[in-house]
Task: structure prediction
Amino acid sequence: METVAACLQWGELTLAQAAPELLASCKVDSQWLLAHVLQRNSAWLRAWPDQAVSDEQRLRYQQLVGRRAAGEPVAYLTGQQGFWSLDLCVTEDTLVPRPDTELLVEQALLLFGAEPRSVVDLGTGSGAIALALAHERPAWSVTATDIHGPALAVAGRNSQQLAIPLQLVESAWFENLPGQRFHLIVSNPPYIEAEDEHLQGVGVRYEPLRALVSGVDGLDDIRQIVAQAPDHLYAGGWLLLEHGYNQGDAVRTLLLARGFDKVRTVQDLGDNDRVTLGQWRAHTNGGQTHADG
Ligand code: GLN
Result:
C-alpha cells in the first residue's frame, strides 16, 4: 500500500467489508479521507494514482479508515462537510448537515425574494440552513439559534470564515427571542423517536442525541415550535419544518390545529415527506398581508 491507487483500493475494500451501511459510500469515503491526509482533492488523486504515499501519511489514512469503518462520519474525521454551495466546518457538537435539508432551503427561497426579510433558523447546529439562506439572500437579516453553546460556536466560526453575517442567539427554541417577530421561521429540529432502532446504526451513532431525538413519537420539539411560532411571526409569515419521512400527516395536523393556512408537505429527492410548511394568517386585518408588504 505505497501508492495512491493502492491506498484507495485498500480503503474501499476495508469500508465495504465493515458494515452494509458503509457499502454505498465506500469509494467516495476512501477518497475523501486520503485527499484529507494528503491535503489534495479527488481530481488530484485520480490524476496521480502512482504517486507515493509516505509511511506517516499511510498510517494516518489507516487510522481514519478504521474510525470510518466503526461508523464515525467522514465529516467528523475531516472536520468539513459540503452543504448547498458552502464548505462548512463541523464538529461532534453539531449534526452533520444532510443533503435532504437542502430541500428546506429551496422551499424557503421560493417564499420570499431578494427584499429585506427577517428570518430565524431554530437549532442551527453548524449554521447550515441559516448560512445558505443568508448567502442566497444578502438583504435578509438571518438569526441562528441553538440551545448548545459549542454548536453555536461552530455556526459562528462558519459565519466568520465564509463572511456571511448571522445573528447568533443561544436559546431553547424561542426562549431568548422575546417579542421578536420574523417573516420566516425555519427549523430542522430533532425528530427521531426515542426508541428508534436506527439510533444504534452506523448512520447516526456518533452524532449528538440532543440533535436527533425528540420524545416517544419524535414530535416533542416540533409541537413546541408549532405552538409558539405564531407569537413570533408577522401576519403572512411562514413556518417551515423538516421532519421524518413518516411524520408528514402529523405535522400538517399540528399546523392546521394551530391555525396555519396553506399547509402542505414537500417530498425530498427520495420521494419521502420531508418538509411541511404553513402560513400564519395572512388575512386577519381585512386582507392585509403584512409579511408581503
Ligand atoms: N440545522 C442543522 C442542520 O440542519 C442542525 C439540525 C439539528 O441539529 N437537528 O444540519
Q: What stands out?
A: The longest helix spans residues 4-18.
